[in-house]
Specification:
With 591 residues, this protein is an alpha/beta fold. The chain is built from 12 helices and 24 strands. The chain has 3 domains: 16-22 and 166-476, Rossmann fold, CATH 3.40.50.200; 39-130, Alpha-Beta Plaits (2-Layer Sandwich); 488-590, Jelly Rolls (Sandwich), CATH 2.60.120. It has helices at 51-59, 66-84, 109-119, 149-152, 160-164, 202-205, 239-248, 280-290, 322-333, 418-435, 441-451, 469-476; strands spanning 16-17, 32-34, 40-49, 88-93, 99-107, 125-130, 173-178, 196-197, 265-270, 307-310, 312-315, 337-341, 352-353, 361-366, 384-387, 395-399, 411-415, 498-503, 508-515, 521-527, 533-539, 559-564, 569-577, 581-590. The strands form 6 sheets. Strands 8-9-7-10-12-14-15 form a 7-stranded parallel beta sheet, sandwiched between helices. Helix 7 packs parallel to helix 10, helix 8 (280-290) runs parallel beside helix 9 (322-333) and helix 11 crosses helix 12 (469-476). It starts with 15 loop residues before the first strand and ends with a strand.
């Protein structure tokens, strides 16, 4: 699909928009309790007795009575309870022949697994394992979600469904400093807060007046030659509406697209007018006002933003201006994270303001393959990257169909640019604020930068990687263990098996394999030996009982994990001794 192309004049005092347009809950049950960090406690274990014991029960003359059968099972449960030192109660018998039992205290999954391992020491027990709580993987029902590769794809996109299982931005305000907004059914009425028009220059305000409380976008169109010498005219971009939709379009409303933080609220602050131009002096006031600071001549902002998005910038070869830097400092002091676009000129972003300011999160743009988009700026001031699209496939979001003046019908369009990449990061920042409201701007930046995933394609000087919402949330929730120290003996080479591995019951051993870019499939498997070892695999972090990307959980030692078109990077492997296991072989092989 093609993408419309818009551009803006970068003047020293004029800012051009940076686009190239081309918790799970369980009610009424005492069996589970959810903690603030998103993990849960439970008291349910499934136990299956070996066939001889079951056969004895079924052949007994008195087992014809279900009541007597229940007594027999309860007797076994009581016996196991004494062996493991726990109070256990039979809940019910299952059609599989196993029994569902419960402990008298809630435990985390690791504790339940350890208890199940103790139960396995009884020779009458065939297997014992925690009862796992299933939940729906969050996939929104928005009708155009299928076209949002930027949210779904695991190569060039952000794999949002796993992050949405943890947070959706509820309770967070994202200020979009842009062209204003237009009423759109995928943004209104829940997400748009009363904003402000901060444009004081009536020559570019496009609405005939100066600053006021109306942040509606009147259109940024201009006659030929007005925006730059020799241009053929400038259509209205409705840029702020598109940016706002990427960050926080309504999700699960059976309509259109969904935003990264689809339950956050948008605070529109109008700073760009005719030709999509705006003055730095207005931007500085807008940044402070959006964060809840006092700006003379304007009313107090009653909805201070935790996240400020600026998909725009101007040429500033000598570095960030003192005016803008002081405004950003004030916003940060008020607790707001400022996210800005790197720019679209394929140059070093250190010459672009506010990308070159201190304390901001500067965002480059990647294409569908996860490499640097050919227009994106780059350099040492860039912190990380996000999907921005290219001429082949842009970013779909909310828009208006009018070329000059707004039309009433709902409209969606593909744009591309660092303007589109930036609200992806702003949306993820909003997710962090929604789970930790008192998080600081420095903490937000640190988490986003340090959890970004490696680029699957070339993106030189694009920062630390592509923003990774799931890893960022896991880090803030304490669910992202530090990978084990690099030890050569733990490294798996492609197609070369580690043999003679021994794992005692309840013990874990760890390995890792580094997968290069461009791999079509990755197979990690165990075989051979004696006992029962469980295979856990996780991308870029140590797996454990609660966090893994693959866990076959089969009987014996024949377990296999396959990843199709795997991401490049390190895959960490844990072998857990479900029972005493000897002479295991472990292999990682990619094509």
């Amino acid at each position: 699909m093609s993408s419309k192309i818009h551009g803006g004049l970068n003047c020293l005092m004029a800012a051009a928009i940076f686009m190239t347009v081309t918790s799970v809950q369980a009610a009424g049950t005492d069996d589970v309790q959810f903690k603030d960090d998103g993990t849960f406690l439970s008291n349910r274990i499934i136990v299956k007795y070996k066939t001889p014991q079951n056969t004895m029960l079924n052949s007994s003359a008195i087992v014809e009575s279900l009541a007597v059968q229940k007594q027999e099972i309860e007797a076994k449960v009581n016996q196991i309870a004494q062996e493991v030192g726990e109070n256990l109660t039979l809940m019910r018998q299952m059609k599989t022949g196993a029994s569902l039992i419960q402990t008298d205290e809630l435990k985390n999954q690791r504790e339940l697994k350890q208890l199940a391992t103790k139960m396995m020491q009884d020779p009458a027990v065939e297997y014992a394992e925690p009862d796992i709580l299933y939940h729906a993987s969050m996939v929104p029902n928005d009708t155009r979600y299928q076209y949002q590769w930027n949210l779904q794809d695991t190569t060039g996109g952000m794999n949002m469904p796993s992050a949405w299982n943890m947070a959706n931005g509820e309770g967070v305000v994202i200020a979009v400093l842009d062209t204003g907004y237009l009423p759109h059914p995928d943004l209104m009425p829940n997400l748009i807060l009363p904003g402000y028009d901060m444009i004081g220059d009536t020559d570019i305000s496009a609405d005939g007046n100066g600053r006021d409380g109306d942040a509606l976008d009147p259109g940024s169109w201009a006659r030929p030659g007005y925006c730059s010498k020799g241009d053929s005219g400038h259509n209205s971009s409705w840029h702020g509406t598109h940016v706002g939709g990427i960050a926080a379009a309504l999700g699960n409303n059976s309509m259109g697209v969904t935003g990264v933080a689809y339950n956050a609220r948008i605070l529109p602050v109008r700073v760009l007018g005719t030709c999509d131009f705006g003055w730095m002096s207005d931007f500085a006031d807008a940044v402070i006002w959006a964060a809840g600071g006092n700006v003379p001549g304007t009313p107090k902002n009653s909805n201070p933003a935790q996240v400020i998005n600026m998909s725009l910038g101007g040429s500033s070869p000598n570095g960030c201006s003192q005016t803008q830097q002081q405004a950003i400092n004030q916003a940060r002091a008020l607790g707001a994270t400022v996210v800005v676009a790197a720019g679209n000129a394929n140059i070093d972003a250190r010459t672009i303001e506010p990308a070159n300011c201190s304390g901001v999160i500067t965002v480059a743009a990647t294409n569908v393959n996860g490499g640097r988009a050919d227009y994106s700026n780059y350099g040492s001031v860039v912190d990380l990257a996000a999907p921005g699209g290219d001429s082949q496939l842009g970013i779909l979001s909310t828009l208006n169909g009018g070329q000059r003046h707004a039309e009433e019908q709902a409209y969606y369009e593909y744009y591309m640019g660092t303007s589109m990449a930036t609200p992806h990061v702003s949306g993820v920042a909003a997710l962090l604020y929604s789970v930790k409201p008192n998080i600081t701007p420095d903490e937000v930046e640190s988490i986003l930068v340090n959890t970004a995933r490696p680029f699957p394609a070339n993106c030189s000087q694009c920062g630390s990687g592509i923003v990774n919402p799931t890893a960022a949330l896991q880090a803030i929730l304490g669910q992202n263990p530090t990978p084990p120290e690099d030890v050569d003996d733990d490294v798996l080479n492609n197609g070369v098996s580690k043999t003679g591995i021994s794992v005692n019951r309840g013990e874990q051993v760890f390995y890792r394999v580094e997968v290069p870019w461009g791999v079509s499939s990755l197979d990690i498997f165990t075989d051979g030996g004696t006992g029962d070892v469980d295979l856990y695999v996780r991308y870029e972090a140590t797996p454990d009982y609660n966090n893994f990307d693959c866990r076959p959980y089969e009987d014996g030692n024949w377990e296999s994990c396959r990843f199709t078109s795997p991401r490049s990077g390190v895959y960490y492997i844990m072998l857990d001794g479900y029972s005493r296991s000897r002479n295991i072989r472990l292999t990682a092989q990619y094509q």
